[in-house]
Structure formats: C-alpha cells, structure tokens
Write a structure and sequence with these properties.
alpha+beta, 14 helices
C-alpha cells in the first residue's frame, strides 16, 4: 500500500482522537445524505430489517457507501491498528474462506458503484485491484493469502469505511469468527470473539422480553447469498470519536461529564449505524458491517432542522433503560434541553427519509 494522497473532494486532514483535537466536520451535503434513523417521534427497538437495495442518492445509493470522510477514516484505521495491534482485528484460523468472500464482496461492490475511484480486473484467479483514493495498485491470486501483504479481510477492510464482523453458522446459531472493529462502540472484540448470537446480544435490554432476538436469528439463518438486508441503529457519543471500545474506556468516558446544556450542541454527536448484512457465497458465513456516521447536534440544527426536531422528541421520550444501555444517561437531559431550543413543535413527516413521504432534512 502507498501513502494517502491529497484530494479536494475527500477530506484528508480529519482526526478522530483527542491528540488530533478532533478535527472533523461534515459538509451541508454530507449531513443531508445521512441515513437518518428516526422515522417517528417515539423510538423503541425493532428489527426494522428491509431489503438492502439502492435508494435515493445518499448513503443508500451503494452496497457499501463511500463519502467525504473515506480517506481520513482509512487513515484512522491504520493508526488504530498500529497503536493497538491484536485488539482491533482478529480472525479465527478456520475463517479464511469467509475472508476471501468478504474481500470479493467489498471490491466488487466498490468497483461497480464507484468506478471513478476503484477498478477490479479479473483474469481467472489472477486479480488486479486499483484504489485511486489511497494510491493502491496491487495484483494477487484470489484464494492464495501468500500473494497479499496481510490477511484478505484485513487487506480489504483497511480500504473500507465502517467495521466488519463475520459470523459463522454453527449449531443453528451464529458465532463471531472474525472482526475488523476500529470503530466499535462499548464492546471488546477480544472478549466477544467466539460468542454466539444470544451471548453477544445479552446486555441489550428488552430484546429477550420482546422476542426480537428469536425472530432476528431465525430470519438471519434463512438469508441467501445475493439478497442482503439492512437496518439502521443509533446512539450518542461525545466528540467525533469513532473508537469507543471497552479497552480505551478510561480515555473517553470522562468526557461524558463535561457536557452541559450550553455546550451539548457542539460536544454531543449522533452516531448513526447503517448495518447491511450479506450472506457470503462460499463459506456460508454472514458479514455484519456497521457503517458509522457522526454528526453533531449543532450540524443537524444548521443543515437538517427537521431532523433536529425529530431527534429532540425521540430523546425526550426515550425509555430510561435504553438511555442507560446506550451509555448517555449522564448527558441525556443536557442534550434534550439544548435541542428543545430548536424545536417549534410543528408536525413532522413519518417514515425514513429514503421512503416515499418520509421525513426530509428540512431547511430549504
């Protein structure tokens, strides 16, 4: 791999760490293309799965979205892997076939959906991969790990936005077999590797009582290659910090008590997770990507005022158990208070923004 080049369209000077003073911002267009996750004024957990097909011209246009933060996020991933080796990327030895499946899925998707930036050329098993955004031009033999500088999954996901967890099907459940998780929120890949579907969802409140986990597992086990599905999830975080893992909790957790009703607009970020699940064709594994988007409450008010009103109402009525589980109980009230100043109470459309008649950002 070669150095990251300067690019006018893609931001190269962003940082996601306190050492870099969190130099991160969204353009107005970057905010208005987000997969905003609140279709209604009230929020409660649900499967909210739908076919992962192209929708609109924003984040759901492609199988794996690429946006203005691509170059800086790939740089951040490289930084995290260098600073904490063996923590953010792990793969069990028998997952090699699934790794090649994932490499193929990412590279084919990028080359198809963003041909101006990526090219994949195949001659049998001899492949050439060109990534013009990162200055990469490599040839390798598909299926032969000796022809790559690292594991196939690490090689591919170092060049992709979001985190990736690969689940193997075993004994009628799904088990975590590999992960590239430099953007994970509040969990440890080292601890969760090898856990079953019910085990790694154990801390989530209400899922068992509502029967969501049983239905979700049955659905996922019936997934077929070529028919991906997606859902959106969300949380709040302080500062535009992508990596908030258990291992680094002492570094970021103290920031939560610094939020107050006056600085919440700039300090609190909505963390949107777009999760498109794919069944992989050879290994029969399922890849669970989590594409993370960060947007401050102030950016929402400025560039997407109707979405800011919606999130105010959803947070104000949020179940206290979910507030605790999502980890923002210390500054929940401050965020609601700050957002209330920007909500006139006018009725809002219902539905996701990519659905017909769904809520749009507003402000135009």
């Amino acid at each position: 791999m070669t150095a990251i080049p300067e690019s006018a369209a893609f931001k190269t000077d962003e940082t996601y760490t306190p050492e870099g003073e969190y130099q991160f911002r969204n353009s107005p267009e970057g905010v208005r293309r987000l997969p905003f996750p609140f279709p209604d004024d009230d929020y409660m957990y649900s499967m909210n799965l739908e076919p992962h097909v192209p929708a609109g011209d924003g984040a759901l246009r492609a199988a794996f979205d690429v946006d203005e933060h691509y170059v800086s996020e790939c740089g951040h991933r490289d930084q995290m892997l260098r600073e904490m080796p063996g923590v953010h990327y792990l793969a069990l030895p028998h997952m090699l076939e699934a790794q090649w499946d994932l490499l193929e899925l990412i590279f084919e998707s990028y080359a198809r959906d963003f041909p101006e930036h990526f090219t994949l050329t195949k001659n049998g098993n001899e492949w050439r991969w060109q990534n013009r955004l990162l200055g990469i031009d490599d040839s390798f033999t598909f299926g032969d790990p000796a022809t790559l500088p690292m594991d196939p999954m690490e090689y591919a996901t170092r060049q992709a936005q979001g985190e990736f967890v690969v689940l193997e099907e075993k004994d009628n459940t799904l088990v975590i077999g590999a992960g590239m998780t430099t953007q994970r929120a509040d969990y440890s890949l080292q601890f969760n590797l090898g856990m079953s579907f019910f085990e790694f969802h154990g801390p989530v409140p209400k899922l068992h009582e509502m029967g969501i986990l049983d239905r979700a597992l049955k659905f996922l086990l019936r997934m077929k290659p070529g028919h991906p599905v997606r859902r959106v999830n969300w949380s709040l975080t302080v500062h535009p910090r992508l990596e908030t893992s258990v291992e680094t909790l002492p570094e970021w957790a103290p920031d939560r008590v610094k939020v107050n009703r006056d600085n919440a607009g700039d300090m609190v970020y909505l963390r949107i997770e777009l999760q498109p699940l794919h069944r992989l064709p050879r290994s029969n594994a399922i890849v669970f990507p989590v594409r993370t988007y960060l947007v401050s409450l102030a950016e929402l008010v400025q560039y997407a005022p109707d979405w800011a009103k919606r999130i105010h109402r959803a947070l104000a009525s949020l179940d206290s158990e979910l507030v605790d589980y999502k980890g923002f109980h210390r500054y929940h009230d401050a965020a609601v208070e700050w957002l209330s100043r920007h909500d006139d109470g006018a009725p809002l459309a219902t539905g996701y923004p990519w659905a017909p008649e769904g809520i749009q950002p507003g402000g135009r």
